[in-house]
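Input record (Table S2, row 1946):
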Amino acid sequence: MLNIAVSIAFTLVAAAFALSGWRLLAGPSAPDRILALDTLSINAIALLALLGIQQSSTLYFEAALLIALMGFVGTVALCKFLLRGDIIE
Amino acid sequence: MNHLVIAPVLLPLLAGILPLLPRHPTMRQRRILSLAATVAQLGVALALAAEVSDGEILVYPLGHWPAPFGIVLVADRLAAWMLVITALLALFALLDAIRGADTAGRHFHILFQLQLFGLNGAFLTGDLFNLFVFFEVLLIASYGLLLHGGGRERTRAGLHFVVVNLVGSTLFLFAVGTLYGVLGTLNMADLAVKAAATPPENVPLIRAAGLVLFGVFALKAALLPLHLWLPTAYAHASAPVAALFAIMTKVGAYSILRVYTLIFGAGAGSAARLIEPWLLPLALATLIFGMLGAVTSTHLRQQAAWLVVASVGSLLTALGLNNAAGIAAGLYYLPHTTFAAAALFLLADAIARRRGELGDRLDPGPAITSPRLLGGLFFVTAVAVAGLPPLSGFLGKFLTLRAALDHPFLPWVMGAVLAAGLLGLIALARTGSLLFYRALPSEAGAAEVWPTLARETVPIIGLLLLGLGLTVGAGPALDQTHAIATQMLQPQAYLQAVLKPGGTP
Amino acid sequence: MSLPLVVLTPFLGAILAAWISRQGRLYAAWMAGAITLLALAGLLPLADAPFAGQTIIQRCSWIPAVGVDLAFRLDGLGLLFALLILGIGLLIMLYARYYLAEQDNMGRFYAGLLLFMGAMLGIALSENIIQLLIFWELTSLSSFLLISYWQHREDARNGARMALTVTGAGGLALLGGFLLLGHIAGSYDLSVILASGDRIRTHPLYLPMLALVLLGAFTKSAQFPFHFWLPNAMAAPTPVSAYLHSATMVKAGVFLLARLFPALSGTPEWSWLVGGAGLITLLLGAFVALFQHDLKGLLAYSTISHLGLITLLFGIGTPLAAVAGVFHIINHATFKASLFMAAGIIDHETGSRDMRRINGLWRYMPYTGALAIVASAAMAGVPLLNGFLSKEIFFAEVLGAAIPLRFGWPLPAAVTLAGAFAVAYSLRFIHDVFFNGEPVDLPKIPHEPPRWMKVPVEILAALCLLVGIAPALIVEPILAVAVAGVLQESLPEHNLAIWHGFSPALGMSVIALVGGGLIYLGRKPLFAFYERHVEWLRVETLYDRLLNGLFALAGALTRKLDTGSLQRLLFVTILSALVLGLAGFISVPAPLTGVRTRLPVDGVSLLAALGLIAAAIGAVFLHRQRLVAVVLMGAVGLVTALIFIRFSAPDLALTQLAVEVVTVVLLLLALYFLPQHSPAKPHPSPWVSHVLLAVAAGGGAAALAWAVLTRPYETIAGYFLTNSVPGGGGANVVNVILVDFRGYDTLGEISVLALAGLGIYAMLDRLYLPGPQRDAEGRAWDPDLHPALLATLARLLLPLALLMAIFLLLRGHNLPGGGFIAGLVTAAALIVQYLANGVAWTHARLPWNLHALIGLGLLAATLTGLASLTFGYPFLTSTFGHWHWPVIGEFELASAMVFDLGVYLVVVGATLLILIHLGLIHHASQPAAATPIPDPPVRDGGKRDALTPNLASTGRGEHGEAR
Amino acid sequence: MHRLLPHPLLTPALAGIWLLLVNSVTPGQILLGLALGWAIPLLTLRFWPETVRVYRPLTLLRFVIRVLYDILAANLVVARLILGRPERLRPIFVVVPLALKTDLAITLLTNAICLTPGTVSARLTLNRRHLLVHALDAADPGQLAATIKSRYEAPLREVFEPC
Amino acid sequence: MLEYLLSLLIVTGAVFTFIGALGLARLPDFYTRLHGPTKATTLGVGSLLIASALYFSTRGAGVSLHEALVALFLFMTAPVSAHLLAKAAHHLQLRSLAPLPPEAGLAGREDAPVDTC
Amino acid sequence: MEALMALIIGVLTACGVYLALRARTFPVVLGLTFLSYAVNLFLFTMGRLTIGQPPIIAARATGYADPVPQALVLTAIVISFAMTAFVIVLALKARADLGNDHVDGRREP
Ligand code: NA
Ligand code: NA
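Output record (sodium ion complex):
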């Protein structure tokens, strides 16, 4: 039961991955790509949560936390670049 | 457990750290610290050399973990020899630097000491991946030193130097990775043991890895055709840095000697004598091309750099003969060429500074101040670099050729070495005649204040005196290098010492 | 005095002379004379040994391992040469003291002269041939210094370089020859070599060895075709020419032939090579000498000719020929030295050396004239003079040799012709200079030179006469000893007498004398002929062509190889690695794929992999839009982290994530100052070959990975897994390896990071690089410097991130985490502060000095390692313990954690140091940080520009190449 | 007092978060968490000079719950929109005039707007007086602005700026 | 029972994650696409994390709530990211289906005095 | 899975090499970054591929991945990060000193 749910979830998240990846490559605008990257990292967090349940291992928690933090930093830096060019001024 | 083994690594490390701590020291304090640390390194190196002179191999298990699991430092004759040479070179390079070159940019002495940290670490380590790490240490320190002082040409040279070395490091990792993936270990002695017992289906992999690794070392050593990075880099470094860099190519040569006598040595079964078909021909080509570069150089520093390339050729020719006599000859030639090249770089700077905007360009220019002293020094340096009698360069040449007498390549070796000697003679005669004879009369004949002149020339004279010492003391020096060579060619003792049953803890 | 000291004396004297000349220019001359006398005094006491038929050998050990010792040898030959060197040297020094002008630097001259004298003595007195070679090369070097004495003259510089190049090349060949010779004979000692002649002559390496040795001898003794350097060396001061280029240095070559005579001679190769070269040189020199208008030029070619004569004698190889050879060495030294000095006097007094202008000097300087006549008569081989005697034996030996060599008459005819030409140019030297009408506009009115300047000439001229008249009395003893030294056996039957009755040799002499007179009489047509065909005899033009060719070739090759292009450099590097790897792989046949069981591919992994590949390739295709490339790189990094997670490497994943974001920030910081786009057609770059190389490299890497991944292996990993907890006190084996098992690696690694920070700090020091005022599309930047939301969130984020960092740091030893990751998390949190509030605001609030932070981190790590030394354990030995405190409960402390703390500090310090100073570039480059402008109207670029006119101008230049 | 506890709310919050991080509740961890919760704010004080005052904690709680509920509801709505026909969408921009002054309050407002699917705050004017909001699908701009002000802004004013 | 709840949460989370990405992929302009990921974040990852927390808390090894931390992080950061992205898009004047408010509408009110309380 | 990893490493290497051979500093930096990704993955895979067995000692662990390559990669990542940072800044310095971003400082044609 749980396994079925998990495998369904995996498929869905993988599909989400693919869609975001497509947007990443297709663009067209820079914000589009940045948004896609941001979404990718969120999907990655979902993936990790699923992996944790599937392997009943808590070792993926820090990774998820770090993706959340670093994904944010990256997005902010990229946006700031578009807005100001000089990202730390 | 002999803690002397770790000292050559810790001394420069601490000397590099201290100036960083709060309440920044003055430049004077930095210089004193740096100088003291370098002198101490020389002392330690000599002590270590004395310790291992009887053929004993000191093994230092870091973290008290036995080989092959932990990293071990191994001090044998070769390591000690390299340490002594490095310390001596560093001392004179530093003596030149503290005249003011060290104020041209930030953190000179930290970079300098950590460069020594990297060099000494590389010479002492018995672990292949650790060798990579210390390569990186000495490389990034050298990047900083190369760019020290800044300037257009220096930046461009630095960019090329850095990028090509990053690629080199990547290749190093590919090679080390493959070796681990096949042999499952990193300790060089253990690698040797495992390599000798490789099942046939894995032999191609370690041979490939071994040859890629050779490519990496060849890049560091500036062996043809991987020498192209050197001339610009060395020609544009500041004088003391270029002088110190005289040892950098030798690190590559050292690694080749170490790895291909130990891991891929005669005892390595189907992986044995891996680089024999490559090393000697390439070395001879490097020798000739380096000299041709020196002949066609338009600037003195550039010429010095090409002469370094040529000297790499000579050195690796000797090592490439792959017999005791050849290795001994190479190891005798190594300090000579290191000191001579360093002296030439320092001298080139001293001359360039006296020729106004003409700098070190090889065109007739105004007569320089104190021409007698500098001219005399140039003459001696040129004799040393060109390998003319009576200085050690000639002996190195003689020993190399002597070692080649029974080698099938004898005609090639003799032809190349003698032709290179002639080319060097032509190049340096031209340079000397241009710089000192074709000088146009100039009014700037102001006699220079003696103390400054002395402080400027003492490092050069010191380096030349080291060469003279190698000449006078050629007997003992050659005995020493011969002892090293025999130790290299019988790695059993090394393996025993490192992998002794029931290691430390 | 011992032989080494005799040789050493002049070298020390050189230093003394150079030094003393500061006190007064003449002191150098006296000092040099004194030194020479001292050496002579040291030598003479040893002289009776050779006369008693013994050879003195004195050696001190130098490089015993290769049989090279400092070994000196005094036998007849050595003694003769040593006496020539010192005796004539003494005369030259006396002469030069008057010859040199006021402005000439005496110290340098005499120092050079003494240097040369020492080197020459070394050659004469060496027992070890390697040592001999060293002195041999020293003569080349010192002659370079002496020829270029008048450095301001171009002919002096070029002559010196030419001499050095030719004789230096010969020296190198000689090195090769001596190596082979020593190899064949089994020793570098002359006594052994001279004793093992048969073994040498029959050895397979004999011919190459002989060729190399002869190359050395011929270049030094100016034998055809290497003779051309000698006339060019005449730019040297005349005393130098007299000493080096007539009496001593050029004799070193023939000395070598004499020295090795017993070991090498007596084979057809020897006769052909030595005799042939000698004969050609003899003829050529004699012929060309006649047509020289320069006094010294004539003497130079005559010297060449006489050297050829001596060489030919040794080539003939009979003992008696050797006698004649040695005898002629002595004679030539005497008359040629005196002739050179006479020429020098003439030059000195008339200010010219051109025989077309110098005429009828007899009226001005009859005494000098008389001396010159005697000397040149000796040169011509006129009876009652020494030259005649040696020539007689020479003619006789040629006649004797002609039969076994099956020459018949041509050989005697040739040497007679040479003799005739010798007579002719001797006649010219006298007639053309001292008679033949009036001088043609000479710079000054000539008169006799100062008294002491003539003394050396007188002495030598007297010797010519004495030897010529009473040879048995004057020269016989020393000649006998010398020849004994050459032959290493008792002297052959010979008889030095003026009159042997009517012999064919006498006939040849007469023919030569008469013929010479006739040639000189009919010289006019000969001169015309010579002028027309001068070129093909001038070998130096060929030499110049060779040298220029060499320079051209060297330049071409070097430029071809070293284009100074980074792309070329990388291409060669990667290609070499590929070639080496491939060569290694195919050298032994084995399948690419191994037998290890493989993992099945699952959908998610496949998808992620495809995503990564797509992103990577996309980055390549879109790399001209640099920001897009950065975003795609970020995606690649993210998937890489997922791969690490997938394959059980949580620590790697964490590190990868953190590093990748910081890298992105760095790239963006840099991108601000760089063009936003790569130009569509940067330079004509061979992109096809680049693609091929890239594909090959990728293929290689993939194949290697595949080959290893599919093979089973044994590893040391087990040890770490079992010892991690009991030995290292940590459950996270990777972390324990990093801080304990291989903590030394980590120490190096953080040093690299620290060095990167410091290096970058040094690099950015005083770097001025103003950033663009508008983006690539020319749009002004958004006026909102620090978005309010971001600023607020940043405040909240920092404490959270610090907490997280501490968490990762503390648990790293047992669970994923560790100092490096914690450090990057901290750095990231602070980066957010920079992003939100700017560098000035944040920097002002940063509590620590970053350099100190790096230093403390490194120190912490190092001291943790050092602590173990105090307990007698090696560097970096770790320790740990479990404590149980009330309330708090069980917890562990490991020294490795302190080490990890050091790592943490270095990471934070270095990362921030880099970022801050990157951020500060713009700050420093920009006088006033852009002040917030009121929100501009949206969708109206024109108005935006209108709002920012002051920035518009600076923007263009910055992006000149971006558009 | 203020110098020792610059952010009184932050200390317990951090302590709690610490327990979440270590994922266990032992006396030792609690003490450690409190210690960190006390030390970190002091360490980062200079980065967060302003003090936060919550006048009506209960209202804040109610606000949070309301937002969470809206998120839930809006998610379903937007899900339908995404799965449905894109050309049917009626995206609009609306300018919402702000009464809030403090950065924290404004931030919470914009966050609430962004978190609830279907609306994104696109821009805050430099003088913090107007917020440009983009809605995925809305019939009447005025009504949307009104909802935002009443549903989110008002409670936030009560919590942080009661005057 | 618990397993059903878990499965439900997991699938819901995955579904919303997917829908978010779908929105990103198929919605017509940047501003509309921007709305997609917000739900991927909120409900999608939210429910997945709740599921995870529930799962591990019921595994015996004590309550596991640290997933809440990830959620907290996301709920704090995601809106700011979205806001900045929108701001950037607005700055770059990306094509938008929604008509932007008239210039005067936004810029006109800029200079009004800021009344303090 | 092994094939997939080999493919990834190959592609990353190829992309890295190609970009590193460009004439502008920025793509070169990107290329070097890709190369470091590639070599890090390569080094990592030298411990072979293992799923769900992180090298963290635990009671109920069925087995462990080879920790050594992981440690090596960690070191390698840090070093390549330092090097990348350095070369990035060096590219800026080159831009400032040489006036353009060509790797040889050549001006535009
Ligand atoms: Na050299
Ligand atoms: Na330990």
